Amino acid sequence: MSKTPSAIVVGGGIGGLAAAIALDRRGWRVEVLERAAEIGEAGSGISLWPNGLRALDALGLGDRIRVEGTLGTEGGIRDRRGRWLSKTDTAALARWYWSLVAIRRTDLFAILSAALPNDTLRLGTTVTGVEDRGATVTVTHSRGRSDADLVIGADGLRSVVRASAWPHARPPRYAGYTAWRTITRPLDFKPDGSETWGRGERFGIVPLGDGCAYLFAAATVREGERGPDGEFTELQRRFGPWPDPIPAALAAVEPNAVLRHDIYDLPALDTFVRGRIALLGDAAHAMTPNLGQGANQALEDAVTLAALLDHHPIGPALTAYDRMRRPRAQRIVRRSHLIGTVAQWSSPLATRLRDNAIRLSPTRAMVRSLDPIVDWQPPE
Question: Where is the FAD-binding domain (predicted)?
Fold first, then answer.
């Protein structure tokens, strides 16, 4: 009788949980080590694009996500005065690819974690190192040591797994801007899903299904800079004078519920695998949020890796995983970085040229430019 293969997933984020679900359903013994005492970040939302939804369908969770989330509404990009620069043809997007779904991160995490056996997730466990021993991999953590046939590093931007097995990898690079995120109380109006672009600043609104909205904003600032009077006050100072519906949305925000994070991405790694260790999600290819693809790419990673392990021994499966995933993910990192650079332009001339270029671009062409990203199918 053959031995049940085992995997340790370091990191209980979206990609890590998805990888654990996919391997568990293929007969693997899986353990997820997560340093936080609880999973799921309150106070923020996420947009799941057609490619991410297909990955969730491969896990058998897509229908549940669509019920819990909100199908994409009409939206687009506005200029600083509130005038539309472009409107997203969500009907065409759904016709060509499927709809987008917006969902609270806490709801997504609840669905993912509920799909795992009860004894899979080890919360409050801090990993300090990994060592590939040839036939197995040893993980050292705050509860001791664990061994497995495979280790998946899904522990995010500041990955301990990457630092252990890729000691010469370049550190994350600051993108030049910071971001705020929050979820409003129920609104007394129904906003479009939109981004408003100014000079070195942006503000986005994503409606959620319960009458609330997920808000996000970005501003070009020095790395590590923080609002001297608190982040809600900083949001109000920067974006309170902006056009409707931004002031009304900010009026529905709890001041202590605003999250702020500087934005980074990861310089390209030469490989996503080392021996019996594989990286996925932000640990492998952290990207700026300008294409909304961070979690969606992590879901693609997880589903692809599990499918390859279902058909091949670990060594050839990891080689194929690196060949399939690294070029695609790194292209999206580069494209997202470029979009962020343009979106954060602050020169009056540059922003005027940018806005005119967006205004003159056909909507169909802008939607079809997403082909290389969203027209992805999970491997059999």
Answer: 7-336
